[in-house]
Inverse folding.
């Protein structure tokens, strides 16, 4: 039975009801010696406590997207087939554009709690040696006739640790928050891509390449990006790509963007941190050398030239805000950093509250203003024709040709 979803949650509620009824019905009816009656009553009390804790855990897990499966919860999942040394580029010396085309099959996601328009594929990374699920959301414009020859910008979404890629759609409801802004022209029609980031059970891979252990960096910045460009109207050019994350994912978004300005033009860090040791289960935070190499502030300061990357960082106190200010003080043009203070704690509803502003900021920084349905209407195409067809898209990962880009 799945850990997430309504079915298991309903079962926990039924168990709590049973646990309450048992002592009401049988507390005074138990027979036998005092020790036997006492043991029976103790079992009923413990059963009531255990079922209540289980129900609360499932509710919190469903709301925040901490664990996606029993293997994730128990720390037994492993999504790494191999972790060879891929060198500084993370590609083993190969050009990303020269890698074989990856044709993927995408299935429609029918879970109402994840919102509409979501599709899912299972990717086996040919470079990273990692495999896992990848969720994709396409903006309404993608299927409209006016946009059939357009390339679309992408935001890669990283979960925290522990965390599931579903959390961006279930807990934070990202598509429902930005779709009205896309329709109004305030936010560009981004494709949203949420790959698995829990790769080694109970250990946080730190979004890094660690030879012999995991190639999380190459999974996210090479395999996933290449797969998306092979299956959708997306360019691999950095001007087409941004990366966003919350908590540990915020650390990963800022780190990967600064390390790979040739792959990402902008990043969003929601309550992220600079020092990987801020996550107690981080592999990169537990080793002194890896800790220094993967510290976001160190990456920015030690860059041979300031990365052409824009970063939006939010948080409260030491939880994202002060680390963001440290990066802002260290930044030199063309690096741009905006820091925004939040209140309310380290919670998904706080991060979700920031999404409208963050995506408007992203649209400006990537110079995508005006690239909404209104552009298509000015081209004389009938936008409404494809609206009713959006649910009937082909989900078999068709590969687009070489379209004229939305992006400059």
């Amino acid at each position: 039975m799945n850990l997430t979803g309504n079915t298991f949650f309903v079962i926990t509620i039924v168990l709590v009801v049973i646990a309450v009824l048992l002592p009401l019905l049988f507390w005074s009816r138990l027979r036998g010696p005092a020790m036997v009656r006492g043991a029976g009553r103790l079992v009923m009390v413990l059963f009531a406590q255990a079922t209540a804790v289980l129900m609360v855990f499932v509710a919190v897990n469903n709301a925040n997207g901490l664990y996606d499966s029993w293997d994730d919860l128990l720390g037994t999942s492993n999504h790494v087939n191999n972790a060879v040394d891929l060198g500084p580029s993370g590609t083993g010396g190969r050009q990303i554009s020269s890698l074989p085309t990856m044709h993927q099959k995408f299935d429609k996601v029918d879970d109402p709690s994840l919102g509409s328009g979501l599709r899912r594929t299972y990717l086996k990374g040919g470079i990273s040696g990692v495999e896992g699920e990848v969720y994709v959301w396409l903006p309404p414009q993608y299927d409209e006739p006016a946009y059939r020859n357009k390339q679309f910008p992408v935001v890669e979404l990283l979960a925290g640790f522990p965390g599931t890629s579903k959390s961006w759609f279930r807990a934070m409801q990202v598509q429902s928050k930005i779709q009205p802004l896309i329709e109004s022209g305030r936010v560009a029609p981004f494709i949203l891509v949420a790959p698995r980031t829990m790769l080694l059970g109970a250990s946080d891979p730190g979004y890094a390449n660690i030879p012999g252990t995991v190639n999380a960096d190459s999974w996210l910045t090479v395999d996933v990006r290449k797969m998306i460009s092979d299956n959708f109207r997306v360019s691999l050019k950095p001007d087409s790509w941004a990366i966003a994350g919350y908590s540990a994912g915020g650390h990963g978004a800022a780190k990967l963007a600064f390390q790979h300005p040739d792959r990402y033009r902008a990043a969003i860090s929601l309550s992220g941190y600079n020092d990987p040791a801020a996550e107690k289960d981080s592999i990169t935070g537990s080793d002194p050398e890896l800790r220094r190499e993967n510290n976001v502030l160190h990456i920015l300061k030690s860059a041979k030239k300031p990365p052409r990357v824009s970063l939006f960082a939010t948080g409260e106190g030491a939880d994202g805000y002060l680390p963001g200010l440290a990066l802002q003080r260290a930044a030199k043009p063309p690096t741009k950093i905006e820091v925004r203070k939040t209140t309310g704690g380290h919670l998904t509803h706080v991060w979700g509250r920031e999404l409208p502003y963050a995506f408007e900021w992203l649209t400006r920084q990537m110079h995508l203003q005006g690239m909404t349905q209104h552009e298509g209407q000015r081209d004389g195409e009938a936008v409404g024709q494809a609206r009713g067809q959006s649910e009937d898209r082909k989900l078999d990962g068709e590969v687009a040709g070489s379209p004229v880009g939305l992006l400059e």
Notes: The radius of gyration is 23 Å. Residues 293 and 299 are 7 Å apart (CA to CA). Residues 373-408 have pLDDT under 50 and may be disordered. The first strand starts at residue 107 and ends at 108.
